[in-house]
Amino acid sequence: MTAPTARNLRFMAPTIIDYDYGISTIDVEFVRPNLAASHLIVDSGEAAFVDVGTSYSAPVLLNALATKGLAREQVRYVCVTHVHLDHAGGAGELMRHLPNATLVVHPRGERHMVDPSKLMAGTIAVYGEETTRRLYGDIPPIPQQRVHAVADNEGLELGQRTLRFLDTPGHAYHHYCVYDESAAAVFSGDTFGISYRELDTAKGAFIFPTTTPIHFDPEAAHASIDRLLSLAPRAIYLTHFSEVTELQRLGADLHADLDAFVAIAEASGADGEDRAVRIRTALRGYLGERLAGHGCALSDDRVDDVLNMDLQLNAQGLEVWLERREANS
After folding, report:
1. What is the pLDDT of residues 47-106, one digit of tens each?
2. Any alpha helices (H) in the chain, and if so which ranges?
3. Is residue 139 packed enough to be buried (19+ CB in 10 Å), middle (13-18) or exposed (0-12)?
4. How confident is the model at residue 37, as a pLDDT?
5. Domain positions in the chain
6. Burial 252-288 (b: 16+ CB within 10 A, else e)
7. Which SS3 state, helix, strand or coil, does residue 77 take?
């Protein structure tokens, strides 16, 4: 699917879901509806974004501010949970329009926001230049003086509340999650997996891990999930997508899936051009069985539409993890 351009997004009404405690989910309109979100937190006249989509998403987020009656000057923080481009690719463009905002980034991702050339080059190497530009647009650099590399367990004040930043590797080594202490809410980026609303049933939300290249680490992923659950949050807000509750059940599902994904990768056979294909096929079968047990009534074609991109990326990430382990053995 061709990504919309910044020009035609500028005139669309943003899709906003408002929750309690001044929290809103904003669809950043990446690839398809209900795939990727930014979360807006507002307290006492100050605002923060957590994850911001791509450069094409910047007009959507600016429109969301206007829709909610907020001035651009009220945004104090732009927080990117990690520097994958569906989460942080829009930060440079958005920051151009938010004069009082500070970018808050993991220390290991800081250099990529100040000078995104290597990040962009790496993405082009994987997807090709045409696809990269179509999906993500340009990635402007952010001046160093507007960037704050946040320490593990550091708290930043937003209005009358504290946002606490937790180092949560596993999906990426440059990943943090945000704990909103007043709301008892976690903004998890990709650490607490993916839960698309199309897959909800009478049994509740359906969740699965994201193991995209290149830093997937199953042991760290398990530990980070447990760290989030130890906070006993009321809700977790996923970039993919929006609010989930029933967190003990979902956490158990994520732990089981991580073990299953690793077993699938380990059973995929010798290295070769088709190993990622074998992993992807096995992942689709595994998740298909889980969805059937969850009461999902979507057709196989519709499930494929929802899961295809994640199946591809998860298979690639598991293969990279296998290659790294094999190289170190």
Report:
1. 999 999 999 999 999 999 999 999 999 999 999 999 999 999 999 999 999 999 999 999
2. 6-9, 58-67, 85-88, 91-95, 110-114, 117-127, 129-136, 218-230, 247-266, 275-293, 300-328
3. buried
4. 98
5. 6-248
6. ebbbebbebbbebbeebeeeeeebbebbbebbbebbe
7. strand
Do the bridges between strand 176-180 and strand 235-238 make them parallel or antiparallel, or are there none, so unpaired?
unpaired
DSSP tag of 204: B
Which residues, 6+ apart, have CB-to-CB distance to 41 below 8 Å? 22, 23, 47, 48, 49, 50, 158, 161, 163, 180, 183
**How many residues can be counted in the chain?**
329
pTM above 0.90?
yes
| Residue 272 vs residues 201, 206, 215, 264, 279: alpha-carbon distances, Å | 38, 32, 20, 16, 12
Q: What is the pLDDT of residues 107-160, one digit of tens each?
A: 999 999 999 999 898 888 877 899 999 999 999 999 999 999 999 999 999 999
> Rounded to an integer, what distance in angstroms lies between the CA atom of residue 70 and that of residue 51?
18
Fold that domain 6-248 belongs to in CATH: Metallo-beta-lactamase; Chain A (3.60.15)
- Nearest Cα neighbor of 75 from 95, 55, 59, 53 is 95
Using the predicted structure, report yes or no on whether residue 218 has a pLDDT greater than 70.
Answer: yes
**Which of the two residues, 119 and 44, has the higher pLDDT score?**
44
